[in-house]
Amino acid sequence: MKFKLPFIPMKIATYNVNGVNGRLPVLLRWLEETTPNVVCLQELKAPQEKFPEQAILDAGYNAIWHGQKSWNGVAILARNMEIKELKRGLPGDPDDDHSRYIEALVNGVVIGCLYLPNGNPAPGPKFDYKLRWFERLTIHAASLLATGMPVVLAGDYNVIPTELDAYKPERWVEDALFRPETRAAFKTLVAQGWTDAIRKLYPDQKIYTFYDYFRNAYGRDAGLRIDHFLLSPQLDGRLIAGGVNRDVRGWEKTSDHAPVWIELKD
Q1: Is 54 helix (H, G, I), strand (E, B) or coil?
Q2: In which residues is Mg(2+) bound (predicted)?
Q3: Most buried residue among 180, 251, 264, 265 by CB atoms closer than 10 A?
Protein backbone atom coordinates (compact mmCIF):
# COMPACT_ATOMS: atom_id res chain seq x y z
CA MET A 1 0.00 0.00 0.00
CA LYS A 2 1.33 3.44 -0.93
CA PHE A 3 0.67 6.64 0.97
CA LYS A 4 0.94 10.00 -0.71
CA LEU A 5 2.28 13.05 1.12
CA PRO A 6 0.90 16.57 0.57
CA PHE A 7 1.40 18.24 -2.80
CA ILE A 8 3.29 21.05 -1.06
CA PRO A 9 6.12 20.72 1.47
CA MET A 10 4.71 19.77 4.86
CA LYS A 11 6.20 21.79 7.68
CA ILE A 12 5.97 20.04 11.05
CA ALA A 13 7.05 21.64 14.31
CA THR A 14 7.46 20.53 17.91
CA TYR A 15 7.37 22.93 20.82
CA ASN A 16 7.44 22.39 24.57
CA VAL A 17 5.39 25.45 25.53
CA ASN A 18 5.91 25.07 29.31
CA GLY A 19 2.31 26.09 30.05
CA VAL A 20 -0.05 26.62 27.13
CA ASN A 21 -2.21 29.25 28.81
CA GLY A 22 0.56 31.24 30.46
CA ARG A 23 2.55 31.28 27.20
CA LEU A 24 -0.44 31.64 24.86
CA PRO A 25 0.60 35.05 23.45
CA VAL A 26 4.03 33.60 22.60
CA LEU A 27 2.48 30.51 21.00
CA LEU A 28 0.02 32.54 18.90
CA ARG A 29 2.72 34.97 17.77
CA TRP A 30 4.98 32.10 16.75
CA LEU A 31 2.16 30.34 14.86
CA GLU A 32 1.35 33.53 12.98
CA GLU A 33 4.98 34.24 12.06
CA THR A 34 6.00 30.71 11.01
CA THR A 35 2.71 29.00 9.93
CA PRO A 36 3.70 25.34 10.32
CA ASN A 37 1.23 22.84 8.88
CA VAL A 38 1.36 20.56 11.92
CA VAL A 39 2.48 21.34 15.47
CA CYS A 40 3.21 18.99 18.38
CA LEU A 41 2.97 20.71 21.76
CA GLN A 42 4.23 19.40 25.09
CA GLU A 43 3.93 20.40 28.74
CA LEU A 44 0.51 22.02 28.38
CA LYS A 45 0.16 22.14 32.18
CA ALA A 46 -3.61 22.44 31.76
CA PRO A 47 -6.53 20.09 32.44
CA GLN A 48 -8.53 18.90 29.46
CA GLU A 49 -11.24 21.55 29.84
CA LYS A 50 -8.76 24.44 30.14
CA PHE A 51 -7.04 23.99 26.77
CA PRO A 52 -7.42 27.27 24.79
CA GLU A 53 -9.23 25.64 21.88
CA GLN A 54 -10.98 28.76 20.62
CA ALA A 55 -7.78 30.81 20.46
CA ILE A 56 -6.12 27.99 18.54
CA LEU A 57 -9.08 27.74 16.16
CA ASP A 58 -9.01 31.49 15.62
CA ALA A 59 -5.35 31.14 14.68
CA GLY A 60 -6.36 28.74 11.89
CA TYR A 61 -5.58 25.41 13.58
CA ASN A 62 -7.65 22.38 14.47
CA ALA A 63 -6.46 20.64 17.61
CA ILE A 64 -6.61 17.48 19.66
CA TRP A 65 -5.10 17.37 23.13
CA HIS A 66 -4.54 15.19 26.17
CA GLY A 67 -4.46 17.49 29.17
CA GLN A 68 -3.55 17.08 32.82
CA LYS A 69 -3.88 19.45 35.73
CA SER A 70 -0.65 21.29 36.61
CA TRP A 71 1.70 18.92 34.78
CA ASN A 72 2.43 17.20 31.47
CA GLY A 73 -0.09 17.42 28.62
CA VAL A 74 0.39 17.03 24.86
CA ALA A 75 -1.45 18.33 21.79
CA ILE A 76 -1.39 18.12 18.01
CA LEU A 77 -2.44 21.13 15.90
CA ALA A 78 -3.09 21.10 12.15
CA ARG A 79 -3.49 24.15 9.95
CA ASN A 80 -6.58 23.85 7.74
CA MET A 81 -6.37 20.05 7.87
CA GLU A 82 -8.37 17.31 9.54
CA ILE A 83 -6.83 15.51 12.52
CA LYS A 84 -7.90 11.92 13.04
CA GLU A 85 -6.95 10.83 16.55
CA LEU A 86 -5.46 7.33 16.65
CA LYS A 87 -4.24 6.93 20.21
CA ARG A 88 -4.29 8.75 23.52
CA GLY A 89 -1.68 7.56 26.00
CA LEU A 90 1.24 5.24 25.41
CA PRO A 91 0.33 1.53 25.44
CA GLY A 92 1.88 -0.91 27.87
CA ASP A 93 0.86 0.32 31.33
CA PRO A 94 -2.85 0.81 32.08
CA ASP A 95 -1.97 2.34 35.46
CA ASP A 96 0.10 5.15 33.96
CA ASP A 97 -2.07 8.27 34.20
CA HIS A 98 0.50 10.77 32.90
CA SER A 99 -0.63 12.71 29.82
CA ARG A 100 2.51 12.22 27.77
CA TYR A 101 1.50 10.79 24.39
CA ILE A 102 -1.06 11.46 21.68
CA GLU A 103 -1.13 10.11 18.13
CA ALA A 104 -3.04 11.16 15.04
CA LEU A 105 -3.28 10.80 11.27
CA VAL A 106 -2.81 14.11 9.49
CA ASN A 107 -2.76 14.25 5.69
CA GLY A 108 -1.66 10.65 5.36
CA VAL A 109 1.13 10.88 7.94
CA VAL A 110 1.00 9.33 11.42
CA ILE A 111 2.10 11.93 13.96
CA GLY A 112 3.11 10.79 17.42
CA CYS A 113 3.54 13.66 19.88
CA LEU A 114 5.41 12.71 23.04
CA TYR A 115 6.73 14.16 26.27
CA LEU A 116 9.18 11.66 27.69
CA PRO A 117 9.72 11.78 31.48
CA ASN A 118 12.59 13.88 32.79
CA GLY A 119 13.76 11.18 35.19
CA ASN A 120 15.59 13.28 37.77
CA PRO A 121 16.84 12.68 40.36
CA ALA A 122 18.76 9.69 39.05
CA PRO A 123 19.10 7.01 40.15
CA GLY A 124 15.70 6.70 41.78
CA PRO A 125 12.00 5.97 41.15
CA LYS A 126 11.60 8.82 38.65
CA PHE A 127 14.53 7.54 36.61
CA ASP A 128 13.12 4.00 36.73
CA TYR A 129 9.82 5.36 35.39
CA LYS A 130 11.66 7.18 32.61
CA LEU A 131 13.36 3.96 31.48
CA ARG A 132 10.13 1.96 31.66
CA TRP A 133 8.37 4.62 29.60
CA PHE A 134 11.22 4.50 27.09
CA GLU A 135 10.80 0.72 26.79
CA ARG A 136 7.09 1.13 26.11
CA LEU A 137 7.81 3.81 23.50
CA THR A 138 10.33 1.53 21.79
CA ILE A 139 7.81 -1.31 21.61
CA HIS A 140 5.10 0.97 20.24
CA ALA A 141 7.52 2.55 17.76
CA ALA A 142 8.34 -0.91 16.37
CA SER A 143 4.64 -1.57 15.85
CA LEU A 144 4.30 1.72 13.98
CA LEU A 145 7.20 0.82 11.69
CA ALA A 146 5.56 -2.53 10.99
CA THR A 147 2.50 -0.80 9.53
CA GLY A 148 4.51 0.61 6.62
CA MET A 149 2.88 4.00 7.17
CA PRO A 150 4.89 7.23 7.06
CA VAL A 151 5.42 8.15 10.73
CA VAL A 152 6.86 11.11 12.62
CA LEU A 153 7.60 10.78 16.34
CA ALA A 154 8.16 14.32 17.60
CA GLY A 155 8.49 15.95 20.96
CA ASP A 156 10.50 16.59 24.07
CA TYR A 157 12.43 13.37 24.56
CA ASN A 158 14.39 14.65 27.57
CA VAL A 159 17.42 12.93 26.04
CA ILE A 160 20.81 14.43 25.22
CA PRO A 161 21.90 11.83 22.64
CA THR A 162 25.62 12.70 22.38
CA GLU A 163 28.23 15.11 23.73
CA LEU A 164 27.64 17.29 20.67
CA ASP A 165 24.13 17.92 21.95
CA ALA A 166 25.14 19.67 25.17
CA TYR A 167 27.06 22.78 26.11
CA LYS A 168 29.80 21.49 28.45
CA PRO A 169 28.57 17.88 28.46
CA GLU A 170 30.82 17.01 31.40
CA ARG A 171 28.37 18.90 33.61
CA TRP A 172 25.54 16.54 32.65
CA VAL A 173 27.19 13.19 33.29
CA GLU A 174 24.99 12.30 36.29
CA ASP A 175 21.82 13.89 34.94
CA ALA A 176 18.93 11.63 33.87
CA LEU A 177 18.94 13.26 30.42
CA PHE A 178 22.52 12.19 29.73
CA ARG A 179 23.09 9.05 31.78
CA PRO A 180 24.37 6.05 29.78
CA GLU A 181 21.08 4.19 30.24
CA THR A 182 19.13 7.08 28.70
CA ARG A 183 21.44 7.48 25.74
CA ALA A 184 21.46 3.73 25.18
CA ALA A 185 17.66 3.66 25.16
CA PHE A 186 17.52 6.43 22.57
CA LYS A 187 20.14 4.68 20.45
CA THR A 188 18.15 1.43 20.60
CA LEU A 189 15.01 3.25 19.51
CA VAL A 190 16.69 4.98 16.56
CA ALA A 191 18.35 1.70 15.52
CA GLN A 192 14.93 0.24 14.70
CA GLY A 193 15.12 2.22 11.48
CA TRP A 194 14.28 5.79 12.48
CA THR A 195 16.06 8.90 11.23
CA ASP A 196 17.04 11.61 13.73
CA ALA A 197 15.98 14.40 11.37
CA ILE A 198 17.80 17.38 12.88
CA ARG A 199 21.05 15.46 13.28
CA LYS A 200 20.80 14.25 9.68
CA LEU A 201 20.50 17.85 8.50
CA TYR A 202 23.24 19.11 10.83
CA PRO A 203 25.59 16.15 11.34
CA ASP A 204 28.48 18.06 12.89
CA GLN A 205 26.94 21.27 14.19
CA LYS A 206 26.03 22.26 17.72
CA ILE A 207 22.31 22.94 17.62
CA TYR A 208 20.30 23.47 20.80
CA THR A 209 16.56 23.38 21.52
CA PHE A 210 16.52 24.11 25.27
CA TYR A 211 18.06 26.87 27.34
CA ASP A 212 17.70 26.96 31.13
CA TYR A 213 16.24 30.09 32.70
CA PHE A 214 19.26 30.36 34.99
CA ARG A 215 22.77 31.74 34.49
CA ASN A 216 21.87 33.54 31.25
CA ALA A 217 21.97 30.23 29.38
CA TYR A 218 20.25 31.63 26.30
CA GLY A 219 22.50 34.66 26.10
CA ARG A 220 25.59 32.45 26.39
CA ASP A 221 24.21 29.87 23.92
CA ALA A 222 24.63 27.29 26.70
CA GLY A 223 21.93 24.88 25.61
CA LEU A 224 20.88 21.29 25.06
CA ARG A 225 19.34 19.41 22.15
CA ILE A 226 16.52 17.41 23.73
CA ASP A 227 13.58 18.00 21.35
CA HIS A 228 13.74 15.53 18.48
CA PHE A 229 12.06 14.33 15.29
CA LEU A 230 12.31 10.65 14.43
CA LEU A 231 11.20 9.78 10.89
CA SER A 232 10.20 6.39 9.55
CA PRO A 233 12.03 5.11 6.44
CA GLN A 234 9.17 6.27 4.20
CA LEU A 235 9.98 9.88 5.12
CA ASP A 236 13.77 9.82 5.29
CA GLY A 237 14.24 10.75 1.64
CA ARG A 238 11.58 13.44 1.82
CA LEU A 239 13.32 15.52 4.48
CA ILE A 240 14.44 18.75 2.82
CA ALA A 241 14.91 21.27 5.63
CA GLY A 242 14.72 21.85 9.36
CA GLY A 243 15.98 23.98 12.19
CA VAL A 244 15.29 25.73 15.47
CA ASN A 245 13.40 29.01 15.89
CA ARG A 246 16.03 30.06 18.39
CA ASP A 247 14.90 33.68 18.59
CA VAL A 248 11.57 32.62 20.14
CA ARG A 249 13.51 31.57 23.23
CA GLY A 250 14.49 35.24 23.64
CA TRP A 251 10.93 36.58 23.58
CA GLU A 252 9.29 37.96 26.73
CA LYS A 253 7.57 35.39 28.99
CA THR A 254 8.66 32.57 26.72
CA SER A 255 9.25 28.85 27.30
CA ASP A 256 12.70 27.50 28.16
CA HIS A 257 12.44 25.46 24.94
CA ALA A 258 12.62 26.84 21.41
CA PRO A 259 10.36 25.50 18.65
CA VAL A 260 11.97 22.98 16.32
CA TRP A 261 10.75 22.30 12.78
CA ILE A 262 11.29 20.15 9.71
CA GLU A 263 9.98 20.24 6.14
CA LEU A 264 8.96 17.15 4.19
CA LYS A 265 8.57 17.23 0.42
CA ASP A 266 6.51 14.91 -1.75
Answers
A1: helix
A2: 16, 43, 156, 158, 256-257
A3: 264
